[in-house]
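Translate sequence into structure tokens.
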Amino acid sequence: MTSILDPGQIPEIKGVTRFPGHPHSGGSSKIPTIIYYDRSGKVRAVGAEAEAEQVSEISQEENWIKAEWFKLHLRSKFGDHRDITQDIPPLPLNKTVVDVVADFLRYFFQCASSYIQVAHANGENLWEDLAGDIDFVLSHPNGWEGSEQSQLRKAALLAGLIPDTTAGHSRLSFVTEGEASLHFSVRNGLPDGVMNNGEGVIVVDAGGGTIDISSYCRTTKATKYTFEEIAIAKCHFHGSVFVTLLAQVFLKDFLDNSPFLDDIDHIVRTFDTTTKLRFKDANDPQYIKFGSTRDNDLTHNIRFGQLKLAGADVASFFRGSVDCIVKAVLEQHNSSKKPIAHVVFVGGFSASPWLISEVKASLKSSGLMLFVPESPVVSKLSYGMKSIILFNPIYPGHKAREGTVYNALDGSKRIPNSFEVVLAKDIQVSETKEFRSRPHALRYNHNQEKQHTVAIWGYRGSIPDPQWTDEDEGES
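Result follows.
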């Protein structure tokens, strides 16, 4: 996330939404925690680029080394969590966790730099003025202490985010996932009881590696949005990657003696990015579409490139995460110093319909109400309607199209090929936010229907304010 601080202006926090190789540039972006190194230890591909088909092919041909989920190697050595060393991929040889995290931070910094220079007015000059005066806030799981923060600080220095000076160190600060999740929840909507009646709230940040659970209530003695912690924050290693790990173990056994066992890595990746995300009913069979219609192995439930799994088996991959969350939430509820009625879910794993429905059902008897605040996305296209508008010679754009003006049946002069924008590009959108326009229709017969269906068009070209449908036609 980035924010430019201008004197007299309310700061607006914006997400960096353009990453190399990412298919959703301009919208909500989540970047995989993956780095490929060549045999000499040089970074060759990071994030979404590392998942491209050509990179996968080159990595095998040139024996690149893959590092993923490496943030989990920074975990605290203390606490009541289980040992996960055997569950997570090892670090590349001759690379420390600080080295790998530094490479990832450097990648993000470069992406943020490019985004600001392109997305902001006079961006290059702005970046040149501010590059040496940037404050960084890094989030980390609940329970991480001085040792883990020290390693993150070393990684930030190695990545070139800050210089190794007193002033440089002062520009780097840390926030726990619980604190960051609370800020997100306040910004995107908390229940009225929490905001106005002093009720406590449990915030569950269900992420890729960890489940971070914290409890807060709004103080009555301070300003409107001041909160205090009312139970000890906890961190558990039961994030969404562990669902994928369990799926991988199951699939290796399930596909034993299958000719498609060699495709296990691709099958697991496909499960991770498709089947896992949309799974919502244990009674329905689930499919992993990993191949073509020529790929068949009926003995192992593979037909036309799709592997069929029982819904109950897929549900079993989630069981550890569901049980962990339910147990942790109830512990927070019972140990809280204030009454708690709401549980707020944030984080990428919270998008799983199965996870949310199972946790909700398990918590029903406790009287806790589960709430998932909306996360706004940014419109990646300009959306609007094709229309015919009244000609006004005062407007230069109309004057330039005077040759296309015609007399309508009602006697008015009109211009065809107008594009009336309803939702402009790069605007934050949420499920409940409305965008309206007032189109006009000419009827030449009173008996014509009074209801009309209008097509909505999207413009994906480079014109900042598209006004005409016959400009850049191939991009609509």
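Note: The longest helix spans residues 311-335.
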